[in-house]
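Reopening: structure tokens for the adenosine-5'-triphosphate complex, inputs below.
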Amino acid sequence: MYKDIKDSANETSCEQIQLSKAELELIFDVAPECICVVNRDHRLLRVNKSYASFAGKSIKELLGTSCYRCFWGQEKPCEDCPVERAFNTGEAEFRKKAVLRGKNDIRYFETCAFPVCGESDEIVRVIEYNKDITDEKRVFEQLVRSEKLASIGIMTAGIAHEMNNPLSGISGTAVNLLRMPEKYGLNEKGISRVTAILESAARATNIMKDLLHLSRKQDSSNTLVDINSLLVKTVNAIHLGGAADVRRKFDLDDSVRLISCDPSKIEQVILNITTNCMQSVLEKHALCMAEGKEYTGIIEVMSVLEDDNVLITFTDNGIGIPEENRSKIFDPFFSTRSAGQGTGLGLSICLKIIGEHGGRIYFECYEESTVFSIVLPRERKSQPVNKIRL
Ligand SMILES: Nc1ncnc2c1ncn2[C@@H]1O[C@H](COP(=O)(O)OP(=O)(O)OP(=O)(O)O)[C@@H](O)[C@H]1O
Ligand SMILES: [Mg+2]
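Re-run output (same inputs, fresh job):
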């Protein structure tokens, strides 16, 4: 009798353990984070589905292999490895690291490594928990850039407004002089000087317009637009010296088609980004020519539907963006172009327009290429659609 009770109690607790195990396994498997258990040699003892899916292998294939090779794409353990630190300190250790997935896909991870002790209090394994923070990072960076832009905008709006009157005075007077050169005693040289004044004033007026554009909330239309057609039309419309030799490739997702946006503003964004790509490619072309190297400039435009958003990428194989400039390129007036070639407002304007559309803009630099990406919601929620443009 006593034995029977004991047996059935054992059976119940066994069942409970099985149930808890199954529950824990389910939690481990369905977690969106990439989780693994590793030993001191960095060998994988367990991995969940998200981990296997990111590594592009089956769970079975991964077990027994090294985490640095399969997940982090390295030939030896990563520098500053949090697993190694957790084994050494016995404490939870953290790290942020980027992983290159394929040629042009970088992902950012936040890793926590938790040591697990065996019976003799010795650390026998470490649980590594990797959270993909790529989207979070991009949203945060855009927020910082937008805030920076807003604070610069308040100051520049005032300056731009005050500068408009004297600039109109300069242009108006120059136009008068050119209308009646004899009356004002202008010879040919004089006319060419006044023409130069007029051109410079026109350039300054355009910069002021861009500045006001940056600092003011502008009226915006909302139209259903075939974004793929807009991309092809705008990218092909760019004619810079030498641009004919640059290959323009399109890889457009047919399922994208109509999105609601302000077409003239999105066109401006496409134009700014593609012009930057083109300038970068042409600069690289000039460098290669000088060094007698073969080079074909390529600009590739891609669109792809991702849930309720459209992702548009512009990839060029131009000169790239040096590390020290990467945090500044969205700042108004930051430009590496020679004087008169660029005002440094292009990307700030893009940032503002994309922000007004509830989207995101970011870039990544790879060894051979630079990729600018725009994420646009298919439906712009705040604005009613008033037209359809195909
Ligand atoms: N695809 C790219 N490849 C390399 N550098 C780039 C690229 N896109 C932008 N940049 C860098 O970012 C800087 C800022 O770009 P932005 O478009 O804001 O200004 P700009 O092109 O210099 O002048 P503009 O006001 O005429 O556009 C550029 O001067 C360049 O150094
Ligand atoms: Mg530009």
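The first strand starts at residue 34 and ends at 38. The CA atoms of residues 330 and 347 lie 5 Å apart. Marking as resolved unless the reporter disagrees.
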